[in-house]
Protein 1
Amino acid sequence: MEKENISNYEKKLKEQKTRLEADIKKYSEAEDFGNDADHLEEEADESESYANRMAIASDLKKDLNEVDMALNRIKMGTYGICTKCGGEISEDILDIAPESELCTDCKKKEK
Ligand SMILES: [Zn+2]
């Protein structure tokens, strides 16, 4: 793959990483109840939405991990190469999901 293309994907991945980290922070933070004494009766709802937020944060962390691994592959010079079969990952896929680690064939087989 052209160096120029790789640095393009790297830029995308870094933007994605920044966004994910901000979202994870947002979802992981415990709600600030502060002076919220009036809303005690809503506590059950609040704890449920807390659980939802934790679930979202955990999904986001998985995404972040994939982005980190892709950035690592860029460093190692193996970006755009399928981690399973060693074949090239088509740029059509990388354009949509720059964190992809599998080529189309291997992705199909995974399902
Ligand atoms: Zn493959």
Note: The helical segments are 3-28, 43-76, 91-96, 104-110.
Protein 2
Amino acid sequence: MTVPFLAELRQVSKIFWVEKPWIGKAKPLYALREVNLQIPKGSTVGLVGESGCGKSTLGKVLLRLTPHSTGSVLFRGEDIGSLSSRQMRGLRRHMQMIFQDPYSSLHPKRTLRQNLQEPFIIHNETDQMQEKIRELMSDVGLDPDLLDGYPHELSGGQCQRICIARAVSLRPDFIVADESVSALDVSIRGQILQLFLELKKKYQLTYLFISHDLAVIETVSDFVAVMYLGQIVEWTSASQLFANPFHPYTQLLLEAIPIPVFRPDRRKRHHSIEAELPDPVRLPPGCPFAARCSKVKPHCLEKVPELRNLGTPETPHYVACHEAS
Ligand SMILES: Nc1ncnc2c1ncn2[C@@H]1O[C@H](COP(=O)(O)OP(=O)(O)OP(=O)(O)O)[C@@H](O)[C@H]1O
Ligand SMILES: [Mg+2]
């Protein structure tokens, strides 16, 4: 059987029940609302959207680090929601997550060597472990002489390199990188993004690359999904999204990117996203973006827009906006 997508979400929702004194009894917060997402093997899918829109939840649900509420999560064509925890443990080595803060991802009181040994020991693969660890260090551009030092002796960029080495140590297929360069100095960010690209080639990885920063997303992605309040509102190839964004929200995000001097075509009037993000527990009916949209029409307030393909079957461009054409 051929499996077209390495990972896939089908109509996935994730509900958190939240209790706040001013809303009375627990109310559902849809961190994900009927999300469909397909991640082709060997690609990098960028996931972008502002804080709280559900990016990390989506990444964790894909790896079953957090359970989803409804819908199906597939990995290599298999519904991972139905796997036992033992079966899931076997699958874990093929899917890894890299987080924003490299220091808190490592054990502070253990040497880098001990931190890197951990996955090999957990998965009972200690043959030639020391050689593999030295090779990993050189793969991520670090001197193996650092191995007996501690995480706090490293810079943020070096520390993230160790986290990346640990994530690829058991040769996974799929990596979710959640804001993995956001905490780094701008000058280091480019080098770490470059490392992600090199390792993708070397280990034939597939990435879900989560960032609120469209400039980062543009550097690494083959496809981009734009999220807004738990929903994907636009989905297409990276080239198509950056050349011709359809959703008013994506257009605003793009206009808010600091304009590189080499992209005078982006030199448009700057808009900021006015009006507050609606409370995700008390979403108004209709399009969730309506309150902030400059193109809003009366019918936008009544009906939630579905994702429609405004591209072609070969080069799809999905957008959830009544007004986009
Ligand atoms: N454990 C939890 N309990 C209750 N609500 C949660 C929980 N985790 C996340 N949420 C809520 O779910 C929504 C999505 O959160 P999530 O962390 O996935 O967003 P995000 O896009 O990753 O944000 P950021 O860019 O700040 O990392 C938010 O409204 C958040 O408050
Ligand atoms: Mg997050």
Note: Residues 5-94+172-319 form a domain with the Rossmann fold fold (CATH 3.40.50.300).
